[in-house]
């Protein structure tokens, strides 16, 4: 299991004035998840006459496609109108276990592009580490019943304080944060995610 710690957070629990038939409660739990994926963001700098097909051919060791392309921008590196480079911006996501392997591939490609024809330059922009979708969903399924129980307990306290009896659930609304850790000296490294649940109860 990737669930290392869970902290209860009662975010809010307002009694909805003017709606004596319902009480709404919002609860949340924070979960520590293990790294599962790593995403490399990098740019390939080329002369303005170099096409995307040429870039993909030159970077075929990474098995990139047009689906990895995040955007294309231009960069002025001199005063002349012909001193413009294009920057093809790519993202590449792989399993966290392949972090070192992918880093080595990028380093080797960076060296080979310098002497390629046409010449190209690869620059890494960021490296983001995140939990896998499977681990997030596993954590969500485990936490959801606990969130409902938390909400019901708080709802019963509110109902009792108001002289009411808590009834059935009328509605649910889920939300969660998207934890990402960045490799670098000034970036966050936490992989925690918070699952929150808004529950609306009937009251009698």
SSE diagram, text form:
Elements: E1 6-12, E2 22-32, E3 37-47, H1 52-58, E4 69-76, E5 84-95, H2 99-114, E6 121-130, H3 133-161, E7 166-176, E8 181-182, E9 192-203
Antiparallel strand pairs: 1-2, 2-9, 3-5, 3-6, 4-5, 6-8, 7-9
Entry keywords:
single chain, 204 residues, alpha+beta, Translation Initiation Factor IF3, Alpha-Beta Plaits, 5-stranded antiparallel sheet, 4-stranded antiparallel sheet, 9 strands, 41% strand, elongated, disordered N terminus
The chain-level mean pLDDT equals 84
Question: Main sheet, how many strands, which sense, barrel?
Answer: 5 strands, antiparallel
Q: N-to-C SSE series? A: EEEHEEHEHEEE
Can you tell me the residue ranges where pLDDT is under 50 for at least 5 consecutive residues?
A: 1-19
Structural class: alpha+beta
Query: Measured on Cα atoms, how large is the radius of gyration?
Result: 25 Å
- Name of the CATH class of the largest domain: Alpha Beta
Helix content: 25-40%
User: What is the percentage of strand-forming residues?
Assistant: 35-45%
Number of strands: 9
Q: Could you give the order of strands across the largest sheet?
A: 4-5-3-6-8
CATH architecture descriptor text of the largest domain: 2-Layer Sandwich
Give the N-terminus to C-terminus distance in angstroms: 41 Å
Shape: elongated
**Into how many domains do the coordinates divide?**
2
Number of helices: 3
Instruction: Give the CATH topology of the largest domain.
Output: Translation Initiation Factor IF3
Report on this model:
The longest helix is centred in the last third of the chain and has 29 residues, at 133-161. This protein is elongated. The chain folds into two domains: 6-35 and 132-203, 2-Layer Sandwich (Translation Initiation Factor IF3); 38-129, Alpha-Beta Plaits (2-Layer Sandwich), CATH 3.30.70. The protein has three helices and nine strands; from the N terminus they run E-E-E-H-E-E-H-E-H-E-E-E. It is an alpha+beta fold and 204 residues long. The chain has a five-stranded antiparallel β-sheet with strand order 4-5-3-6-8, with helices on one face. A four-stranded antiparallel β-sheet has the order 1-2-9-7, covered by helices on one side. The protein has helices at residues 52-58, 99-114, 133-161, and strands at 6-12, 22-32, 37-47, 69-76, 84-95, 121-130, 166-176, 181-182, 192-203.
